[in-house]
Amino acid sequence: MISSMAADHAIWPKEDDAIFGLAAKAQEAIKKYGKENVIDSTLGALADDNGDLICMKTVYDELKSMPNACFAAYAQVAGQPDFLEAVQEACFKEFRPDAYIKAVATPGGTGSVRHTIYNYTNPGDTILVSDWYWKPYVTISEEFGRKVAFYKLFNEKNEFNIESFKENFETLLNKQKRLVAIINSPAQNPTGYSLSDEEWVEVINIMKENAKDQNNKIILFIDVAYIDFAGKENERRKFFKLFSNLPENILVVVGYSLSKGYTMYGMRLGAAICISSNKDIADEFYYSCSHSSRANWSNCNRAAMEVMSRISKDPAKLKAYEEEKAIYKSMLQKRAEAFVKAANEVDLEILPYRDGFFISIPCDNAKEISDKLIEQNLFLVPLKKGLRFAVCAVSEDKCKIAPAMIKKIMDEIK
Amino acid sequence: MISSMAADHAIWPKEDDAIFGLAAKAQEAIKKYGKENVIDSTLGALADDNGDLICMKTVYDELKSMPNACFAAYAQVAGQPDFLEAVQEACFKEFRPDAYIKAVATPGGTGSVRHTIYNYTNPGDTILVSDWYWKPYVTISEEFGRKVAFYKLFNEKNEFNIESFKENFETLLNKQKRLVAIINSPAQNPTGYSLSDEEWVEVINIMKENAKDQNNKIILFIDVAYIDFAGKENERRKFFKLFSNLPENILVVVGYSLSKGYTMYGMRLGAAICISSNKDIADEFYYSCSHSSRANWSNCNRAAMEVMSRISKDPAKLKAYEEEKAIYKSMLQKRAEAFVKAANEVDLEILPYRDGFFISIPCDNAKEISDKLIEQNLFLVPLKKGLRFAVCAVSEDKCKIAPAMIKKIMDEIK
Predict the structure, then answer these.
(1) What GO MF annotations does this protein's record show (chains A, B) (predicted)?
(2) Which residues of B318-335 are buried (b: 16+ CB within 10 A; e: fewer)?
(3) pLDDT per position as a tens digit, A271-312
(4) Chain segment B152-171, per-residue pLDDT in tens
C-alpha cells in the first residue's frame, strides 16, 4: 500500500486557491443578498460599477474580426516578430533605454517571472522580494527549490525602504555572487505603491556600486503588470531611461503583461524583456528563455499577439484603444481617491497608495478581520501582514463606504 | 568584460528553431514558384489541398459567438471544472478506465509532458523515450537536468519492439526505482505508428511484473496528441480500458491536446490526465500539477476551455463538430494511403504507418537528402534517423508524387 508517487520536490499541501474560494463565496452572497448589498473586492480584475468584468471594446472588436487562422496557427516559440516589436513599444513608449533589448513572449507576467528565476539562479539560491508581495513569487521560487528573503518595502516615513533593500541585497549578493531581486513597480500588488524616479536612482546606484566587483551577477526583475493603469500619461515609464548604459554585470528583466492593459487576463500573454549593455548577454537571454519556453509551454497565444500587433500598427486603432483605456484608468483613479479619502476620514491606516488595482491595510489579524467582514458581505483578501482591497473591482460608491466598515471591525477586534 | 549572466544550466546554443526556418523557406519558394509547384510538408498542422490551414468551422463559429468575458476572465489554475469534465470525456469516450482520474489544464500537450517529467523524476534521472521521437521530449528533459534513454521503436518485423522497451525499462527502473516512460500512441510523431491493443497488453504486463517490487514507482506517460485523427470511429481508444485496476505503484498520465482535434494549435490548450487505482495518488497528482501550473503559467486559455465545454454539453453542436472532424480525418487517411501506395510502387522504404499527421522514411543522410529535395521544391523535415513527411499538410495529388521524388534523390546520393 503506497500513497505517493511524486518526487519529493513535487509534493505540496492539498490546498485549493484561497482567493478563488473567497471569490466564489462572494458570488454566493451576491446571489443571496443582491449585488447592491455585497462588496466583492477579491479578484484582481477591472470590473464596472455593476461588478461585471470590463472587456475593452477596442480589443475584443479587433479580436473577433480576425481571420480564424490568426487563432489557429502556432506562433513562433519566442513570439511573433511583430508582437515582439509591439510589446516593447507598449512597455517603454518614449522611454526606451539605450541598451540591447530582447523580448520573449510568455503566458502572462507569470511566465516572465518563472523564466527569470529559473534561468538566472541556481537551486538553493535566495530571491529577494519585498515583504508586501504577490504570493506567486514565493510559489515560483519554491517550485524550483529556490528560497525567498524579504526586504521591508516601507520605512517609518512610508517611503521605499532603501536601507532595507540595500542591506538584504548586499548580504545575499556577497554570499551568492548572483542575485535576482524583484521590484514590483509601478502600482505594486498589493499596496499600490510606485517607486519615485528618485527612489529608482537610489536602487540603481546600489546595483552599480555592487557591480564594481566583476564577480557579481546582478539581475533586477521589474514587474510592471499594472503599468498601463499607473500615473498620468506615461510619467510612470520615465524610470526606464535610467537603465541605459548599465554595467554589463547588471541585467534588467521587465515582466510585461497584457492581462490588465488589454483586459486579456484569460488569454495568457505577456513578455519577458531584457535590458543589457552587452549584445551577447541580451542574446543569451533570448535563447535561454526560448529554450525554457519550448520546454514548458512551447509557444504562446497567437491571437492575443495578433491583436496587440494590429492595434499597435494602426494609428487610428491605437488612438481608439488608448482613449478607451484612459476612461478606465480615470475610473480606477477616482475609486482609489474615494477609498483613500474615506480611509483618512475614519482614521483607517492604509499603506501609501500611488497607482493601480489594490490598496492595502496593515494589521496583525487579517484573517479574523476578513471573516468578520464577510459576515457584513464585504469580501477582501487577507494577507500575512494585512488586508488587500481591490479598488479595481468595486464601484466608487462602495469605495467610499468600505473604509468605515473595515475600521469598525478592526476597532471591535482590538 | 563579461559575456554571460545566465546560470550554467540555462545556457543553450544560440540556435533558432530548424522546422520554422524550413517552413519559412518553403513559403519563400511558394511566392517565387507558385503553390502548385511546391510541396510544403514541414509543419505539423492540417492544411487543405490549397495549402491553407484548416480551421474547423464548428469550433471557430462557437468561439467567435462567445461573450467577451469568456476570453477576458482568468480561468482557475487547474482549469475550469466543466472543461476538466469535457476533456476527460473527449479523451476516453466510452473507454474510460475503472480508476481514480484527475485532470489539470495545460498549454497544449507540451505542458502535460513537462509536468510529468518535472514532478515525477529527480534531477539526473533518465526518461525513457523511443528512438523515433518528438524532439521536445529531449528539450524538456534537458531543460530540467534529466537525461534521455532510447528504446528501439521497431523490431526487424516492423512491429513495436517490446524486447527493447522491456530491456531499457527494467535497466532504468532497477537503477532509479522510479521511471517516467513515454509512449506516443496512437499516431506517433514522426512515424504514424499506433500500438495494437495486443502490444499495449504486453507493455502493461511488463509494468505489472515490475510493480511487484513495491519500491518501484512506475509512471507511464501516453502522448495522445493525434488521437482525434486515428483509427476508425473510437477504436484507437479501446486500450484506455486496460488501465483499469492497475497496481498502485503504476501511475498513468495521458497527455491530451486540443491543438489538432479542435484545430486550436495557437490557442495552447491541453490537459494532463492521470489514471490511478489510489485516490491519494490521483489527488497528489492534481495538487502537484496545480502547484506547477501556478508556478509556470498560472492558468490556461479560458476561451479555449469554454469552446470545448460548450460543444461537449450541446448534443447538436457535438454532432456537428464530430461530423466536421470526420471529414478531415477521412481526407487525412486518403492522403496517407496515397503516399503509402506510391511509396510501395517505387520501392521507397517507409516505417509502418497506421494513423496521424506524419510518415517517416528511414535513412542515414537525412539532411543531405532534404537539401537536395529543397532544390526541387519539396520541403520535409530531416531527423536523426530519417525524413518526416507531413501528410497533414499536403494534398492527395502531391502525396502521390512525393515518394518518387524522394526515392530518386535517395538513389542518386547512395
Answers:
(1) identical protein binding; pyridoxal phosphate binding; transaminase activity
(2) bebbeebbeebbebbbeb
(3) 999 999 999 999 999 999 999 999 999 999 999 999 999 999
(4) 999 999 999 999 999 999 99
List, in order, residues 6 or more apart from B67 with CB less than 8 Å away. Answer: none
Residue A211's alpha-carbon distances to A126, A197, B10, in angstroms, are 18, 21, 22
A156: region left, alpha or beta (phi > 0 left; psi from -120 to 50 alpha): alpha
State the virtual CA torsion across B2, B6, B12, B15 in degrees, nearest 10. Answer: -70
Q: Is the separation of the CB atoms in A412 and A372 below 8 Å?
A: yes
Banded model confidence at residue A15, pLDDT cuts 50, 70, 90:
confident
Q: What is the pLDDT of residues B268-282, one digit of tens each?
A: 999 999 999 999 999
CA separation for the pair B267, B90 (Å, rounded): 18
pTM score, whole prediction: 0.97
Q: What is the CA radius of gyration of chain B?
A: 21
How many angstroms away from the CA of A295 is the closest CA of chain B?
4
Is the model's pLDDT at A19 over the cut of 90?
no
Annotated domain spans of chain B: 8-56+318-413, 71-314
Are the C-beta atoms of B5 and A289 separated by less than 8 Å? no
Q: List pLDDT tens digits, range B14-73.
A: 988 888 889 889 999 999 999 999 999 998 999 999 999 999 999 999 999 999 999 999
pLDDT at site A234? 95
Q: A284 CB near a chain B CB, below 8 Å?
A: yes
**Distance from B118 to chain A by nearest Cα, in Å?**
8
Contact between B267 and A52 using a beta-carbon 8 Å cutoff: no
Q: Are B288 and B281 in contact (CB under 8 A)?
A: no
Cβ atoms of B255 and B109 within 8 Å: the answer is yes
CATH class of the domain whose range is B71-314: alpha beta
Looking at domain A8-56+318-413, its CATH architecture is: Alpha-Beta Complex (3.90)
Site from A15, A61, A68, A300 to mutate, B interface, most B CB atoms within 10 angstroms: A68
β-strands B381-382, B386-390 pairing: antiparallel
> Which DSSP helix (H) or strand (E) runs through B370?
helix B366-375
C-beta atoms of A291 and B76 within 8 A: no
| Distance of alpha carbon B33 from alpha carbon A190, whole angstroms | 58
Residue B66 to residues B133, B311, B395, Cα–Cα distance (Å): 38, 12, 33
Residue B280 burial (CB count, 10 A): 16
Chain B residue at shortest CA distance from A218: B5
Element (H, E) at B344: helix B315-345
Residue B335 grid coordinates: 492522403
Task: Give the span between the Cα atoms of A114 and B176, in whole angstroms.
Answer: 29
Region A51-64: what's the mean pLDDT? 97
- Report, as an integer, the average pLDDT of A191-195: 98
